[in-house]
Amino acid sequence: MSYHIAVCAGIVPDPLQTLEPVSGPQGPALKNEMMLPAVLDPWAAHALYEASHLAKSVPGSKVYLVSLAPKAKLQQVLMTMAQKVAFELVALDGPSSGFTESADVASALAAAVEAIPGLDRSQLLLFGGWESAARAAGTTLAMVGERLGITEQFQGVDALTVGADGSLEILERVEGGKHQVSACAGAPAVLGWATGSLPEPPNSPQTGMQNMRTVMPALQKAKPAQVGAHAFLSVSLPKQQRTTRIVKDVPAAEVAREIAAWIRGS
Q1: 102-114 vs 140-147: helix axis angle to the nearest 10?
Q2: Is the dihedral of CA 22, 11, 119, 209 positive or negative?
Q3: Are 173 and 156 contacting, i.e. CB atoms less than 8 angstroms apart?
Q4: Per-residue pLDDT reduced to its tens digit, 157-207
Q5: In this structure, is residue 46 part of a structural domain?
């Protein structure tokens, strides 16, 4: 028993950056987007770490990183990520902003997964982020699975246990801060990861050198992906609102009531 694990992962601007939306010739975009430092989407990064751990525990398994992003920016991000886990890159050259249409992104990613040479669809596990720092519609990964004909889908996953018979036990988040344990007979399956349970792997120069032998050729062969943008009437930064009043000798309970009333009325 072995798995082919395809991890769908995009890149996003570093969370510490200030993002300013603008209207460009191709539709909404981020101001100076190509100049912003980028990182692998945090939710997708958890999925990649979990995929690497599973591949190590199940001999013969292989991890594919499937990413739709501007290949110049993707190359910068992979210079760091390639040192953390072993994978084979499947790259698509396209926009990575949060304004893209998730159905188009899903179509492009599904086609890229289907085109992986030697892919065993019966042993395919499709990993990705339950959420996204860019495409947080919560629909992209599910639509990729549907296009690949995978109906066993689990979202908000925190843990995965593989049984001796190949069955899968999945710990999923549900409402109210609770979890449910789901059972699946085996692959193929879609798992949208929440935070997982693994820390960020340490850098390994040996792993980085091994990955970069395949990363650079994959980037050079990256096909352009045609993805549309949502229709927006306008894009702008959220307006800041600040109301300050200095008071003395007011009980804490009264302050709390005033704050709650202000929030309800805002």
Answers
A1: 40
A2: positive
A3: yes
A4: 999 999 999 999 999 998 888 899 999 999 999 999 998 788 888 899 999
A5: yes
pLDDT of residue 34: 76
Q: How far apart are CA 80 and CA 217, in angstroms?
A: 17
Sequence-distant (6+) residues with CB within 8 A of 110 are: 143, 144, 147, 148
Token pair of 230 as six digits: 């949502």
pLDDT at residue number 137: 64
Q: Is residue 259 part of a domain?
A: no
When divided into structural domains, the chain yields a total of 1
Domain containing 207 equals 4-224
Are the CB atoms for 90 and 214 separated by under 8 Å? no
**Residue 235 placed within a domain:** no
In 3D, which of 233, 165, 247 has the Cα closest to residue 27? 233
Which amino acid, 10?
G
pLDDT over threshold 70, residue 249: yes
Torsion angle in degrees (nearest 10) through CA of 141, 96, 200, 58: 40
Task: For Cα atoms 250, 254, 257, give the angle at the middle one, nearest 5 degrees.
Answer: 150
Each residue's pLDDT tens digit, 11-59: 888 877 777 777 777 667 777 777 788 889 889 999 999 999 999 999 9
CATH number at residue 123: 3.40.50.620
CB 92 within 8 A of CB 108: yes
Q: Is the pTM of this model over 0.90?
A: no
Cα-to-chain-centroid distance, residue 50:
13
Whether a cis peptide bond, with omega within 30° of 0, leads into 188 is yes
